[in-house]
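Incident log, structure service

09:12 report received: a user says their structure output differs between two submissions of the same chain.
09:20 pulled the input from the user's history:
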Amino acid sequence: MAAFDTTRTTYGSTGLFGRFGALVATATGMFAAWNDARATRNALSGLTDRELADIGMSRGDIETVAAGKTVY
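09:34 re-ran on a clean worker, output below:
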């Protein structure tokens, strides 16, 4: 006698709620990244040129650091 399993889920396909959850998670992550960059930019912009030089940066490096890229 053979058994036929009909309760197995299909992997790789998500329903409407799964897609909506992924959209919300992506939007939340993008907002958090934007807010982190904004806070970094504001904090570094508040430093004097002397303070920036003490940490090895110049005013031109602020945007690169806020974007998460390495400054050499």
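09:41 both user submissions now match this output. Likely a transient worker issue. Closing.
09:42 reviewer note: The CA atoms of residues 18 and 24 lie 10 Å apart. The chain has a mean pLDDT of 86.
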